[in-house]
Structure formats: C-alpha cells, structure tokens
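Why do we bother with holo predictions? Because pocket geometry can differ from the apo form. Keep that in mind while you read this record for 2-acetamido-2-deoxy-beta-D-glucopyranose.
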Amino acid sequence: MGASAKTMIPTTTRAITRILRASLLKFIALLFLFSLFSLLLLKVDDLISKIALETKTVAGHNLAQTPWHHFPVKHFNESNTIYGKAFHFLKCTHFQCLFGANNRQYNTSPNKLKNSHNFTTNITSTTTCPSFFRWIHRDLEPWAESRIAMGNLMEAQRSAAFRVVIFQGRLYVDFYFSCTQTRAMFTIWGLLQLLKRYPGMVPDVDMMFDCMDRPVFQKSKYRTKKRPETNIQPWEEEFKSIKRGSEAVNWDKKLNHAYWRGNPFVGSRARTDLLHCNDTNKWGAEIYIQNWIEEAKVGYKKSSLADQCKHRYKIYAEGWAWSVSLKYILSCNSLALLISPQFQDFFTRGLIPTQNYWPVKHSDLCRSIKFAVEWGNSNPIQAARIGREGQRLMERLNMDMVYDYMYHLISEYSKLQNFKPMPPKTAYEVCEESVLCYADSISKQFLEKSVCLLHHLCRVIYGEPIMILLRVGFREIERL
Ligand SMILES: *[C@@H]1O[C@H](CO)[C@@H](O)[C@H](O)[C@H]1NC(C)=O
Ligand SMILES: *[C@@H]1O[C@H](CO)[C@@H](O)[C@H](O)[C@H]1NC(C)=O
Ligand SMILES: *[C@@H]1O[C@H](CO)[C@@H](O)[C@H](O)[C@H]1NC(C)=O
Ligand SMILES: *[C@@H]1O[C@H](CO)[C@@H](O)[C@H](O)[C@H]1NC(C)=O
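The structure, written out:
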C-alpha cells in the first residue's frame, strides 16, 4: 500500500506535467493560429483598402484631374464603404475580363481567323479607301526616319491622361489622370470595337492619350457639348435627319445670306470677330449667340440641328479647338463657308476648297463672307453643287470609314515603333464587359447602341469619341 502510494505521487506529478505540457502546446498552437489568422485578416484588410483606394478605373475612380485642365469633380454612385468599393473594383476591373464571353472574340482562334479572313477580304475588296486616307502617311512623316522610341512615349506621358497598349489582340490601359465627362470610356470603347472588327489584325501598339480638345496647357472654360451630355443622336441617325431637313427646302427657297449660331466666348478670335459681320444688308450675314448652358437647362430643344439648314450659306468658325459643328454644317446641303481652320479633324482632309466648301479669310472676315455670298447668289448652280458635295462627303463619313481610318492609322503608326510594345505592370486589361461594368445607365445605352457585332456593321454609330481619339491620340499631327 505504502509502496504503491509512493509510486502514485510521481505518476500523478508526471501525468499532470504531461497534461500541462500538452495544454501549453495546444495553447501555443492556438496562439500561433490566432496570430496567423489576425495577420491574415490584417493583410486581407490591407489588400481590400489597397484595392478600394488605388484601383484606377475607366470611369475615373482614384484618379486626379489633369493639372492642366479642370472640370467638375466626378461623383460616383456606388457604395461608400471600403468593402463595397473593393468588391465593385474586383468585379469590374479584376475579374470581368477573365470571365467575359465577348472577350474571347478578340482571340485569334482558327475559327475566328477564318471568319476574319472572310471579313478582311470584304474590307479590302468591296470598299476603296477615300483618297484622303493618304494623309496618314503625311501625318506620320515626322517619324518616318527617326521612328518612335520608348523615350518619345515617356515624354508624351507627361501630358497624357492614359496609355493604351494593344498586345496580342487584347487591350491594356494604364491610367494617369481622370478625363472630363465620359471621354476615356468612349475612346477605349472605340478601340475595343476596332479590335472586334479586325480580329487578329490590329498590330501591337503603345499609345498615349490626352483627352482634351486642344493640346496646350491652358485653363479653359469647361464646355458642355459632348455626348452623351447633349441631346445629340448618334451620327448616322443624325445625318439622316439633317439630310431630310435639308431636302425640305430647295436652294432657291433657302435664305440668301450666311448664318452662324454658336458661343463666341470660347477664346476664339474667329468667333468674336464674326460678331462684327452681323448685318444682312451690309455683309450678307446673320450671327446669333447660342448659350449652351441656358440650352442645357431647357433640354437642348431649341438647338435642333436638322432645323438649321434654311440658309444657303453656313459659316464654320473654330471654337476653343475644332468644333463638332463642322459635321453638321457640311451636312446641310448649303454652301459651307469655312473661316481658315487651324485644327484638323480626320475628315477635314477630305475638304477641297471650291469643290465641297468655300474658304473665307479670317484677316478680312466680313468682306470675305460678303464676297462668297454675292458669288453664290450670282452663280447658284455652282454654289448649290459645292453644297451638295459637302453633304456627300459627310454621307460617306459612316462608321465603316471611321474604323477603317483608325485601323490604317494605327497600323501605320505601329510600323514606326522601334520597340516591342508590352503592357506595363501597372496596366489592366480592359474589355467590353469591364467598360459596361463602370458605365452609368445613360452611357451604357450609348455604348451598347454602338456595339459592332462581328461581320455586321455597327447598328448605330457613336462617332464623336472616335474623332476625339483620332484627333488627340496623335497630338503632333494637329500642329502640322
Ligand atoms: C444612385 O442611383 C440610384 C439608381 O441607380 C438612384 O436612385 C439614386 O438616386 C442615385 N444616388 C445618387 C447619390 O446619385
Ligand atoms: C465566309 O462567310 C460566309 C458567310 O458569312 C460563310 O458562309 C463562308 O463559309 C465563309 N467563307 C470562308 C472561307 O470562311
Ligand atoms: C462579303 O461581301 C459579299 C458581297 O458584297 C457579301 O455577300 C458577303 O456577305 C460579305 N461577307 C461578309 C462576311 O461580310
Ligand atoms: C444680329 O442681328 C439680329 C437681327 O438684327 C439680332 O436679332 C441678333 O441678336 C444679332 N446678333 C448679335 C450677336 O448681336
């Protein structure tokens, strides 16, 4: 009994020690797991904050305004919590292109290639490029010998809002600054449509985009005339409606003087000088001030464009930079009087004086307008013909032509790069789904309307952003 008691005590102690040791081990293990878990939570939290606060988006999230141009701060209508934002960005930026069905279409699977070949032969054999496409070579001439180096691009980055790299048929974007209104979104959308129209054909390129109308560092008043911010229908619809409007009044019935309506206070000498020519008897011109801000309040009803082809002569004066109004003026079947323009739109290269427009000298403005009006009134057949030719040029300006031009321009540009384009580490892939994911309901309508199905023409166009792309994408071109 005594002996057993003697052995009992050490056994108990040993057992207790063992239990204690085991508990301690368990405790340490638990502590370890707990720390690991906390650490993980912290890391996840970190990651979520990082995603929410650093993801730069096509809509302009987490992007500052361009220092050289101010516009109203954008408000986003999404969750305000860090988690809500992170979820939104994860979904739209990080996952959408992985699972998007349309995304596959940019790939060059054998099946797609076969179709694209079919598509290609149609492009090249059934449509001939307008002769002014030759300007592409002229425009790119400054780089023909020196070629475009990465250094040139890095220099351009200082005034760029975003950079687009097309790599193996996919589109990657690196965002630097927010763009006014919805320009970044629509420009990128236009490029995505290009990839879809020309599957497997768009070469690898690296391009910097500035989204202002005019490539100078100067404060300007913010303007309110871009789609979808104004009530302007997509171009093909709009053209038809203008044409119908223009057919309602034949040349003889049109008012026999020149007409201009717009905002003269946009820092443009041509426009302020025009105000002095407002006298139908003395100068043969009628000038009206259009207040876009007032118009915006009443819903742009008064400025119905199709209603404005009642004059034989329509004056075009550049605004802050080029103005969308040129297209509408040329579409009217009236004689377009162009005050010596300084900025080039891609289709302005198709303009030929006395063939599809009449040039007006800025230095002798009122007299020059008077001369044109008097010439037209005494040569009505010729004047009407020039007006018709202007309208015909605009009629050809459909989406096929715009994308064709974009394709050729980008292809020629890519040949001049003396490096192999690669998406930078900070860039994300952008696809249709990810753009739509960020679009508000109005933009979404416009975007979806302009989707090009493979082998189909765009049902409706959204011309403006592509013009902007063509104009601002290659800033130097404008200075030529
Ligand atoms: C956000 O959008 C919803 C519907 O999409 C709308 O009802 C709501 O008023 C919007 N909120 C803000 C702050 O714009
Ligand atoms: C070209 O397209 C047509 C119709 O889209 C199709 O029927 C035809 O098989 C295609 N041809 C080739 C060579 O892929
Ligand atoms: C190519 O053009 C022909 C003739 O214009 C047309 O019948 C065919 O459908 C076109 N194919 C495609 C794929 O657009
Ligand atoms: C130009 O003249 C017309 C008619 O006299 C007038 O109604 C209009 O307000 C004038 N425009 C400007 C800018 O002064």
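The CA atoms of residues 256 and 377 lie 7 Å apart.
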